[in-house]
């Protein structure tokens, strides 16, 4: 079992506020995010883009494992995860993630590739997260 972390800071209101995200590894260190980067296409990151990157990475790694079990090795795989955020009622919801994969796998036929990619889509831990129990420990400081 492994546990790692990401963190976020926020100051101000929803539209005029500013946030910063960081990861335990240091890959992101106080990287800016906010309303404008989430809803107006301005510079900075947002939760959906981070979810997309995580899902694309997880799916691609899972497929690499599954390919190896089938005695296949990818020469190259590139995956994009398009995460859709839509207004629902009084709030917002992530309504879909669309994965697009381009792969070069010597010795693989299309039927086998489609089957293995489908297994990776269903089995990667981030795919499973979208239907997982979420808990919260909230404290006022």
Automatic annotation (TrEMBL):
Entry-linked InterPro entries: KH_dom-like_a/b, OsmC/Ohr_fam, OsmC/Ohrsf, OsmC_Ohr_Peroxiredoxin, Peroxiredoxin_OsmC
TM region(s), chain numbering: none
Entry GO MF terms: peroxidase activity
Gene3D superfamilies hit by this protein: 3.30.300.20
Pfam families hit by this protein: OsmC
GO biological process: response to oxidative stress
Annotated protein name in UniProt: Peroxiredoxin
Organism: Bradyrhizobium jicamae
């Amino acid at each position: 079992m492994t546990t790692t972390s990401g963190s976020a800071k926020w100051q101000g209101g929803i539209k005029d506020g500013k946030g910063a995200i960081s990861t335990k590894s240091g890959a992101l260190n106080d990287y800016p995010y906010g309303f404008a980067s989430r809803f107006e296409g301005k510079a900075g990151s947002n939760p959906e883009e981070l979810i997309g990157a995580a899902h694309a990475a997880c799916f691609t790694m899972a497929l690499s494992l599954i390919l190896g079990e089938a005695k296949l090795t990818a020469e190259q795989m590139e995956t994009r995860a398009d995460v859709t955020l839509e207004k629902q009622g009084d709030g917002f919801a992530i309504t879909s993630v669309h994965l697009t994969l381009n792969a070069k796998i010597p010795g693989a036929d299309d039927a086998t590739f489609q089957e293995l990619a489908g297994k990776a889509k269903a089995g990667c831990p981030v795919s499973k997260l979208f239907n997982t129990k979420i808990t919260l420990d909230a404290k006022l400081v």
